[in-house]
Fold:
Amino acid sequence: MSHLLAVRGLVVQAPARGLKIIDGIDLSLDRGETLGLVGESGCGKSMTCYAIAGALPRGIARTGGSITLQDDADGGTGSPAKPSVAMIFQDPTSSLNPVHTIGHYLESALYRHQGLRGNDARLEAMRLLERVGIDRAKSRLRAYPHQFSGGMNQRVMIAHALAAKPRLLIADEPTTALDVTTQAQILYLLEELRAETGMALLIVSHDLGVIARLADRAAVMYCGKIVETAPIGALLERPAHPYARALIDCMPTIDPDDLEPPTPIAGSVPLLDNLPAGCHFHPRCDRGGRDCVSAYPAPARIGPGHAASCYHPVRP
Amino acid sequence: MNPPLLQARGLQKTFRLRSGPLARSVDHVAVDAIDLDLAPRERIGIVGESGSGKSTLGRLLLGLTPPSAGEVRFDGVAHADRRPGDWKAFRRQTSLVQQNPLSALNPQMTIGQQVAEAVWVHRLADRHGARDQAAAMLEKVGLSAELMDRFPHQMSGGQRQRVVIARALVLSPRLVVFDEAVSALDVSVQAQVVAILRSLWQQLDLAYVFITHDLRIVRHLVDRIAVLYLGRVVETGDIRSVYARPRHPYTRALLSSVPSLDPRVRNVAPPVQGDLDPGKAARGCAFRSRCPLAIERCASETPRLRRIDQGHVACHRAEDVRPLPMATAEVA
Ligand SMILES: Nc1ncnc2c1ncn2[C@@H]1O[C@H](COP(=O)(O)OP(=O)(O)OP(=O)(O)O)[C@@H](O)[C@H]1O
Ligand SMILES: Nc1ncnc2c1ncn2[C@@H]1O[C@H](COP(=O)(O)OP(=O)(O)OP(=O)(O)O)[C@@H](O)[C@H]1O
Ligand code: SF4
Ligand SMILES: [Mg+2]
Ligand SMILES: [Mg+2]
Structure:
């Protein structure tokens, strides 16, 4: 069976400036699977999401590679419809239109995706709100986003995404703007919904803790490239790319025995218009050799489902 | 023990809210009956969910907003008794690093100018001297003098954050309030800023209040912590003992909400439901609607801060709060 999502050699550019924001990445996602995408600010996580959702911002275009979405399991009608993709974002309150009620927002999505109107749409909107954990759904339909907390608005965004009956839900930093208590609630909700609907989940975060909680597999991005992909356990316990290891080492924990402060990564992320030759990480890398500046390293197999683009991968 | 540098007693701030022109106004108590002492060079963390009153408390401590009740003393002098001329001296000895540091810089000034400006507005040096002081301070936060003539947009988020810190510390203040100073940054940049703050604190005569909702970072930056819930301190104590053994159900819920890096700990039910609910009743524990341990007494009697072990906890059932499962023990 083919993958639900297959991204091959994706290149995304801002043609006006000729910059490659995404430089030839491969990703795949199976039905019901959760893939985590992690990396520092500016590495291209959001652009990858927009490209997959077919919603790149103006002035930015896909200039290479392919994105294939296919769901043979869908419908069973013989003609596999293109599976639907929905997306939720980091800042729920500013992504919602302040002049519309929550009800209007959900009901218009239900009309668009499922052709529901009037009472049918209202009942389904109420059911969705209840499903995402908003009680008193009936009165909440008449509320405006500014009357809700950030966590409640993120639940509304999730309900809105569900209206599309997505086979793939893309969650781009869905909890970064929220409190840890609310984050725990939203992550739990996403996992429940994934299990319930069988949709696949692409979760994006710069916080490996968030990725660790949900993902089956993870991909680590740096400067528009994927430097390592691995099953989540292998990545956290045996990271092979020095960048992946450095990201893990700079994660603070709450473990009372872990007294050392997090270890910063030397230097800073290079600008897109000034990328180091060879491996883009080499100026910050503590394992780099002379070969690292020659050419960009090809992905090398580390273990089952585990590959890293590095000349000197960390061996356990 | 040293006499306190900063002392707050019975601090309260009430905002009068009106939801529409005809609506009756309601009082919202953002900060409620807070006592706080900070010795010279002491570092305290203030944590709590969004809306718990952290920023309001920070502004009250620095005299940037007047309290509705209670008082704040700095070096023994109450803010309310300070004459206009004395405020200037107070401002020179204190500073605030604002919640949104990336927009705190002026896009039209070089970073060297912005750090130097803090020096010469207080007439502490001429322009030349101010520039030298700025360069020295930028060096301390790990920014070389070559960057002095750059504009903020030519720098990364982490570099800009260090500029904001340099500007806050250039006058060698004795007290700084950091309000979510690292929350908007990547983990890697956070780790850099943490390392810089730790080393600066070693070198300076600095006490600070570190406000954050990030429980992972704050423990590396402070000696003590106070947990706020709807404007009240519900638990306070030495940072290590609070993390090793939280005594308030809310502190425990906060700590157990933090995702661990252990992929075996997955699909964990959220420790608390719901959000802060500001429509709290006048009586009883404000946390009770979300508390797994709530009993009848929690509705009838407001828990007061009381001493348990080395810290203070406002909960009727503090003795019944279970220790956190140790991440390491759980895996073994
Ligand atoms: N309109 C644009 N024109 C040119 N470059 C852009 C544009 N928008 C974004 N970029 C660049 O594309 C790169 C990838 O941006 P993207 O938003 O995907 O990063 P990200 O990994 O999601 O970061 P963050 O964690 O901050 O959200 C960045 O270097 C950014 O500067
Ligand atoms: N100027 C104001 N007028 C009216 N209400 C206010 C004002 N400032 C704060 N509040 C209210 O006081 C409460 C505490 O706000 P505060 O900003 O201190 O919280 P916080 O803990 O800093 O939250 P966050 O983590 O979101 O920054 C909130 O309910 C807020 O809406
Ligand atoms: S006082 Fe009661 S409701 Fe409040 S935290 Fe303690 S047990 Fe929970
Ligand atoms: Mg992004
Ligand atoms: Mg605040």
In short: Residues B 249, 285, 287-288, 291, 293-294, 298, 303, 315-317 surround iron/sulfur cluster (ligand 3) (CB under 6 Å).
